[in-house]
Amino acid sequence: MIIILLGPPGAGKGTIANEISRRISIPVIATGNILRNAIDKNTDLGKIAKSFVVSGKLVPDEFVIRIVEDRITESDCEKGFIFDGFPRTTNQARELDMVFKRLDRNIDQVFYLDTSYETIISRLSARRVCTKCGAIYNLKYDPPEKADLCNKCGGKLIQRVDDQEETIKKRIDVYNEETSPLISYYEKMNILTKINADQDLEDIFKILWNRLIEIGVIKNSKLW
Ligand code: AMP
User: Fold this and answer.
1) Is the CB of 52 under 6 A from ligand 1?
2) What separation in Å is there between the alpha carbon of 53 and the centre of ligand 1?
3) CA 18 – CA 26 distance, rounded (Å)
4) Tens digit of pLDDT for each residue in 162-209?
5) What distance in angstroms lies between residue 65's CA and the mean position of ligand 1's atoms?
6) Half-sphere exposure of residue 113, counting CA atoms within 13 Å on the CB side?
7) 127 lines ligand 1 (CB under 6 A)
8) Structure pTM?
């Protein structure tokens, strides 16, 4: 099963992707996480990506597409995967279509998480991320049990550098200009489901899960 989560920063893509992954054991491919890891390790890719990520701009398509092509041909992706944060430009979406054609794979569904400006700001400014396992917390809605420490692995929680207000605004502009055209791109392919993402994450997840059952990619509805 191949799922794409589309939506502005703060829509809940990461949390939803992790929950799908936990339930049906397919990996999440989050290009933002891959890029942040590369930056932390100071690899060649990390050196190139750093200035873009820190300022809230998009890393050039050629690098991101190469990362994705390498990742999806790994063995754990055979059963499927969930894209979080990819594709982010029409060019990336077209390239992905070509790669999938070559690999004889299909996108099952694209979920567009439609989110208001107020929700984005309130989710991102309170977001904290585990430096060890990547778990996501929200200080208002889903705080950790111990301040600044991950419930799952005890890792240190931090605020992402690009979750500060000025960069958030930049990322929203970039989303509106470069990523939002993908809504009509996938609508035309008849594989887009729009969900109001101002709701609680649990409610968003229920709608998404029911849709996956409806289109027949999840057979066992007892999983809910
Ligand atoms: P995210 O974790 O998805 O919010 O991504 C964080 C940052 O990584 C973005 O603001 C971009 O700088 C970069 N990034 C992540 N995914 C992509 C992508 N598909 N194309 C270009 N840049 C990306």
Assistant:
1) yes
2) 7
3) 10
4) 998 889 999 999 999 999 999 999 999 999 999 999 999 899 999 999
5) 12
6) 31
7) no
8) 0.92
